[in-house]
Design a protein that fits this description.
Elements lengths: L1 H16 L7 H53 L20 H31 L3 H30 L1 H21 L3 H26 L8 H27 L3 H17 L27
Helix pairs in contact: 1-2, 1-7, 2-4, 2-6, 3-4, 3-6, 3-7, 3-8, 4-5, 4-6, 5-6, 5-8
């Protein structure tokens, strides 16, 4: 599952970007990651009745059938696509450039900021606040709605207001998501944290895709940034599990996430005057491009 998800993250974004007019590439990047959030929403709605009806086995079978249907639809929609004529660049091409290293580090830090909500938010609501599974499921659904529509809103903001301004807004929102649980557990704060965390968890991926696809950047940069993001998610998951085992509290987890958000804010480069990712537009007849091809 992790390998397949990583491959889709690497290949889908550049393939779509290569076919879209520059003035719409922000929104297109949002649609690329819209599926992640919509999957969270679908699972939050479908899993409770599946668990009540047939237990764990029925739930896994239902998810498998949904995945098979999605695969069939994707294969049909991408039929006739041909691979790029030239070989893909090396994964580490251009890594020695300071700007590329900084961007990869910033995206990895964003992953650390997202981990507390991704892995621990329902548990924090249900057990940490003793609110029960019902409220935890509701907050997870709100998180999923934010993850579904956040990329669309932030992507279109990048088209209209500029990539740099949108990045400032999104990274501030991510910091707020991790900050709120440290100071307030009122309903409004929990809802605001759920929406903000969901919107930035997927929305920032679209914005960093646009950063990686700017003119003059290494063609393989998005692949490497995605690999760093996944590695930091894994390391962050182990770190937060250890912190919880040692402290028995959820607050240190969100403090680590807040540190990741601040680090991301400091490391990120904010382009000025850019409203879309520049570069040539390929015609659909030529087939979507694979990761890193421009």
């Amino acid at each position: 599952a992790g390998f397949a998800g990583g491959a889709l993250m690497v290949m889908a974004g550049p393939a779509v970007q290569a076919l879209i007019a520059p003035e719409w590439r922000g929104l297109a990047a949002g649609f690329t990651f819209f599926g992640v959030g919509s999957g969270v929403v679908a699972s939050a709605l479908a899993l409770p009745p599946l668990l009540a009806w047939g237990g764990i086995a029925a739930s896994w079978n239902g998810l498998a059938l949904a995945g098979a249907a999605t695969l069939g639809l994707s294969v049909w929609l991408w039929r006739g696509a041909s691979p790029p004529p030239r070989p893909l660049p090396s994964l580490f091409a251009g890594l020695g450039q300071a700007a590329n290293l900084r961007l990869v580090a910033a995206y990895a830090a964003a992953a650390l900021a997202a981990v507390p909500h991704m892995l621990w938010w329902p548990d924090f609501i249900a057990r940490g606040l003793n609110a029960g599974r019902g409220e935890a499921a509701a907050m997870w659904l709100i998180y999923g709605l934010g993850a579904a529509f956040g990329p669309l809103v932030l992507g279109r903001m990048a088209d209209l207001a500029g990539l740099g301004r949108t990045l400032v807004f999104a990274l501030a929102l991510q910091a707020i998501a991790d900050l709120l649980p440290l100071f307030s557990v009122r309903l409004f704060s929990l809802v605001a944290s759920s929406v903000s965390a969901g919107a930035t968890a997927t929305g920032l991926s679209g914005l960093f895709l646009l950063l990686c696809r700017r003119e003059g950047m290494s063609p393989a940069l998005w692949s490497l940034a995605t690999a760093a993001y996944g590695a930091m998610q894994t390391a962050g998951g182990f770190l937060l599990a250890w912190l919880y085992a040692m402290s028995g509290k959820h607050t240190p987890l969100f403090a680590v996430g807040l540190g990741g958000a601040i680090l991301t804010f400091l490391l990120t480069e904010y382009p000025r005057g850019e409203r879309a990712s520049p570069g040539p537009v390929r015609r659909p007849a030529q087939g979507p491009e694979c990761a890193g091809d421009e």
